[in-house]
Amino acid sequence: MASDKVLTFSDDTFDSEVLKSPVPVLVDFWATWCAPCKAIAPVIDAIADEFDGKVKVGKVNVDDNPGTPGKYGVRGIPTVILFKEGKVVDQVVGAVPKAQLEALIKKAL
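-> structure tokens emitted (109 positions)
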């Protein structure tokens, strides 16, 4: 079941929602046809629930929003990038375990 805490970011909203966010933002770059993206989706949902209020969690569909992934060098999906104060803190590519994403977030908190 998808978490209602996972936001949807677009090329148009990325600057205001992610780069200007007062809290760290975890962004999942994905596509509907990507099997590993579907595999990591429940992990992203769990992270959104677990870190609610501390970290903003959202997704960017790379097919619908090609500008933002290009700007951040996203070449493979899923790519998960953690932003803090408008800058990239860290990123991982592929369907990684939840513990790896938790460790990534803890670096920014």
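The CA atoms of residues 44 and 57 lie 8 Å apart.
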